[in-house]
Amino acid sequence: MALRTISSQLAAQLDKELMGPEVGFTLEQLMELAGLSVAQAVVKEFPYSETRKSQVLVIAGPGNNGGDGLVCARHLALSGFQPVVYYPKRTTKTPFYAQLVNQLKFFKVPVLGAGDNWAQYLDHTKTLCVVDAIFGFSFKPPVREPFGSILQQLRHAQQNLPIVSVDIPTGWDVDEGPADSDCIIPSVLVSLTVPKPCAAKIDTCETHHYVGGRFIPRDFALKYGFEPFPYENLDQVLRLH
Ligand SMILES: NC(=O)C1=CN([C@@H]2O[C@H](COP(=O)(O)OP(=O)(O)OC[C@H]3O[C@@H](n4cnc5c(N)ncnc54)[C@H](OP(=O)(O)O)[C@@H]3O)[C@@H](O)[C@H]2O)[C@@H](O)CC1
Ligand SMILES: [K+]
Q: What mean pLDDT, rounded, does the chain reach?
């Protein structure tokens, strides 16, 4: 079956409508479900076991994609994993992000900032995977620092260390896909609500694809031009391939 996708522009419009006066979701609600979805995809891909490594590096960017990563880290901690968060550029536009960081501290999850030695966690003998929550559907190339250097280090690490990308593989053009051969290649992509066109450019031999962010009714999906996804039971993610 053809992959159902919507453009970055339509995704932003859908987001706005969900949080508009008629529907009335808050960003906090949607982000909680989005982060929970990503955590569930990690658990499905790398089931927790007492005898294997359980450290997960979550890299959070400055926007809502980063917020999804902060929520995901909390759910991973609840599921027995040992997340470490690298959050180099923090926004003060709303107090909500600082609250998410406080919740991580409450769960004893380390939150590293600019200047901290985050790259030590790229050691694949100790870390199970990296959650790429750097940029989502509002990314506009070219990438600015410090994120260019972070992506370069992820590219080097990805041979041995799987990357789980939230919504968009960071650095990819949301509608066109990977801009050049230097882009990261995630092992797992978790599209939120509905895949964006770049998801059609993944190589399905290299990248497992999930959809998550299960927060819209059937008629709303159809209005935005896609068939709803057949999630099972209360699952927050559905593996597409
Ligand atoms: N309904 C859904 O599906 C839901 C989706 N959700 C999630 O929200 C995500 C979209 O979030 P978003 O709109 O906040 O944008 P996002 O992609 O995080 O990036 C914006 C930030 O990046 C920055 N920035 C941009 N380009 C840059 C560059 N080249 N180099 C450096 N920086 C750059 C930009 O900075 P600015 O340009 O403003 O200075 C700004 O700070 C979406 O993908 C999904 O994960 C859920 O949380 C809720 C429900
Ligand atoms: K991402």
A: 96
Ligand nearest to the CA of 154: 2
Tokens describing residue 9: 């522009």
Q: What is this structure's pTM?
A: 0.97
CA-67 nearest atom, ligand 1: 47
Residue 50: pLDDT above 90? no
Nearest-atom number in ligand 1 for the CA of 68 is: 47
Instruction: Indicate whether residue 143 lines ligand 1 (CB < 6 A).
Output: yes
Q: DSSP for 141-193?
A: SSPPTTHHHHHHHHHHHTTTS-EEEESS-TTSBTTTB-SSTTS---SEEEEES
Distance 180 CA to ligand 2 centre (A): 17
Q: Is 63 in the pocket of ligand 1 (CB under 6 A)?
A: yes
pLDDT digits (tens, 9 = 90+) for 112-168: 999 999 999 999 999 999 999 999 999 999 999 999 999 999 999 999 999 999 999
Reply yes or no on domain 8-239 having CATH 3.40.50.150: no
Q: What is the best residue among 16, 18, 64 to mutate for testing ligand 1's pocket, by most ligand atoms within 8 Å of CB?
A: 64
pLDDT tens profile 173-196? 999 999 888 899 999 999 999 999
Task: Give the whole-angstrom CA distance, residue 180 versus residue 156.
Answer: 15
Which residue in this structure is represented by tokens 């935005």? 224
- Report which bound ligand comes closest to the CA of 68: 1
